[in-house]
Amino acid sequence: MNSLSHKLLLCLITSALLGCVSNQAEFEDAQSDEQLMQTAQPNPGEQETIEYGHFTEEQLYQTIISELGAQRGVLDQAGDRYFKLAMETKDPSIIQRAIQFASVNNDVQALTELGLLWVEIAPDTTAAHLMLSYQLLESGLFEQALGHMIQIIELGGQFDFTALSARTTQVDTATREALIASLRTLSLSHPSQRSLKLSLVRLLDQNQQTQQGLAVLQTLIKTEGDDPQLAVVNAQLLQKLDRGNEAIKSLKKSVRSNPDNSALRFSYARLLIQNDELAQARQQFETLIINNPTDYETLYSIALLNLEMEDFEAASSAFTRLISANQRVDESHFYLGYIAEQGSHLEQAISHYRNVRIGTSNFLAAQQQATRFAIELDQLESAHRWLSQLSQGQPRLEVLFTTIESSALIQAGHLVPAQQLLTQAIETHPLDTDLLFARVLLYDRIKDPVSAEADLRRIISLEPDDSRALNHLGYMLADQTTRFDEALELLELAIAISPDDPAIIDSLAWVQYKLGRYEQAAANLRRAFAVFPDPEVASHLGEVLWTLGKQEEASQIWNNALQDTPDSELLKNVMERFIP
């Protein structure tokens, strides 16, 4: 990793923004599961008073035993006893106590049955319908849930209907269309229920009817006026319809009308990022941080934006501030390492990368970079000692670090130390295919195909379905020998295991070319090049096309690939061979 790509950084920025849940929470469409649970299911510590007088002696005994069991932590048995008592007595207090235990035990079936019983004996109780609505939603019984949600409203209660649309992203089209029809009808009979209409909007959007959803939403906006939540949803739908400029304009207007609404400004900043308006997005985040200096998630977003805009000084300052506040420490060290790398301050880069702690998302990438730079600086012993200390007592991590270290040594031309490292590691872990494959790469570098083939066949004997080894051996035989039939057999095994791997498709096409199957080779190379347009695939595709008499197309592919990778010796060599 010599640099972080543009797309990677944008992904990281988006992830950071999505992580700022404190700012975004105001515009969540649906209540969280936790909120619904708290409302729908009583807290075990808030037991209602149970009137014991009308119970039989056996029922009273079971109640006391259940409570004693709960006090001892035997919750599943207590839950089973209370469930049976609820079904026998049909007592509302017992039912609610049974619900508490079923909830703690995560007994979904019991919760649903208890909810149905509660509604049956207390049909005018809002809490009963609320609890049952939640269980039916969780079970995917949306139409049944909708009936109880409406009952809550008709009993004078409140329900956020977007709890429905929040759970329908993966349902089939027929189910979603039935729900859309129901919500359209209910919207007419309950015109004051704003969340019902918002749920309809979301369902239409999920059903690829975003334009219709936007029409419903804009009708709601006309009724509700300048509402920040509706403004955000409106912008989201416009953005999805590729109307980014309109989305920005509408949300900007809402921000101006509600300048102190941080959640709205946050959504506006995120929309600007989606439209690649990074400088404007940074201004919005800077306003947010001025208003709330301890909002470290927003500060992290600013740091990433500065990094993407290559304002390394500002990014470094923000990341350093985060470390001082003990916030996003590992991510900040990782990006400070990247910044130091861009300035060729390799010692600083190593220091920051090594400060990324084990167990964090960037840990392995950081250790890979630190190792590579230490070896580039001829600090071979330091690099090895650091990785050994980190992996002590962790065999899998030790193997992984060995492959990282050997790769860095090979890349830097330290071939003898790399071979010594791998040979020693394989003596300790003789059945580890990752170590064997790492040594194959070394043998490739020192041009020892006999030893490479031996290790590859060892890997295949240990793991017959290792498509990586099958592909590597097949391609090696096709490219360096005349054992084309044997190569084809290996590559057909590899492609059967990993049919969509572009590297294997390229290798298969290459042996087909060697066997004179030019049309098959061209078709497979086009397929590989479409998803993996690297210089090697480009060189192969051009060569096959040239052989088929398509010299103009071949030249265009080579020239385009050379523009993207001007230092590719592979492309230069193939062009020299074919172009006079």
UniProtKB/TrEMBL annotation:
Top-level taxon: Bacteria
PROSITE patterns cross-referenced by the UniProt entry: PROKAR_LIPOPROTEIN, TPR
InterPro entries: TPR-like_helical_dom_sf, TPR_rpt, Ycf3/AcsC/BcsC/TPR_MFPF
The keyword Membrane is assigned to this record: no
TPR repeat ranges, renumbered to this chain: 535-568
Pfam families, sorted: TPR_16 (PF13432), TPR_19 (PF14559)
Residues annotated as signal peptide: 1-27
Keywords of this entry: Repeat, Signal, TPR repeat
Record's protein name: Tetratricopeptide repeat-like domain-containing protein
Biological source species: SAR86 cluster bacterium
